[in-house]
Amino acid sequence: MAAPQEYKHSVSELNILVVDDYPIIRYGIRALLETRSGWKICSEAATGQAAVQQVKRWKPQVVVLDLGLPDIHGLEVIPKIIEIHPPVRILALTDHEPLEIACQALASGARGLVTKSDGLDAVIRGVQALARGKSFHSPEARAFIKEGAVGRTDAGSGDALAALTSREFQILKILAEGKTNKQVGAALDVSVRTVEAHRASLMRKLGLHSLSDLIYFAIRKRIVRI
């Protein structure tokens, strides 16, 4: 897979795919987003399989993706979509998902997170941010993640953080932003194997065991902003 192309698409010209298994939610999102001049819903999907097929066909700039799909969980859909169309930006919608799932969505490559209780205006703001090449977390999503990160004290330590090399710290920060090993390598101009070695070392030093642990740690230590 080629290294993802970083782009900031014109916010006034945007093709968007909406993925949710509830027709009324899809209709509401579509009706709201299409009030914006130049924004077009190129397609809709009710399942993960259909979403993958629609991305292949339409190559949207932004995908608004419900994580709780009936056939394939959103966590599995996210990397499939990115593999098919690397420049895509994914705004994940979550509704009573465990905190672990929300953080895994970011680790899998979603660039934004909105809870369904935020309201549709948060979806507009999320799509705007992603189209400009930025990340987006709604106020409720930020509070949700921070609350879990602050309450989770079983992974990582501040003393261990001081033991990281400058390169390990760089990789920690980029990984916590949801980038893959390949994307980290491209950003730092090093091989994937080098990234993997540094990642294994920093995880060992910090006592972390998964990308979700890493994201919790980075948020708690304010290494990344959400």
Describe it.
This protein is of the alpha/beta class. The chain has 2 domains: about 15-150, Rossmann fold (3-Layer(aba) Sandwich), CATH 3.40.50.2300; about 160-220, Winged helix-like DNA-binding domain superfamily/Winged helix DNA-binding domain (Arc Repressor Mutant, subunit A, Orthogonal Bundle). Helix content is about 50%, strand content about 15%. The chain is built from 11 helices and 6 strands. It has helices spanning about 25-35, 50-60, 75-85, 100-110, 120-130, 140-150, 160, 165-175, 180-190, 190-205, 210-220, and strands at about 15-20, 40-45, 60-65, 90-95, 110-115, 135. Helix 5 (about 120-130) links the parallel strand 5 and strand 6. Helix 2 (about 50-60) runs parallel beside helix 3 (about 75-85) and helix 6 packs across helix 11 (about 210-220).
Brief synopsis:
With 226 residues, the protein is α/β, with parallel strands linked by helices.
CATH homologous superfamily caption of the largest domain:
Response regulator
Tell me about the largest β-sheet. 6 strands, parallel
Number of DSSP strand runs: 6
Q: Identify the overall geometry.
A: globular
- Overall pLDDT metric: 85
Low-confidence stretches: 1-8
Q: How large a portion of the residues is in β-strands, by DSSP E?
A: 5-15%
Count of DSSP H/I helices: 11
Q: What would the CATH topology of the largest domain be? A: Rossmann fold
Text of the CATH class of the largest domain: Alpha Beta
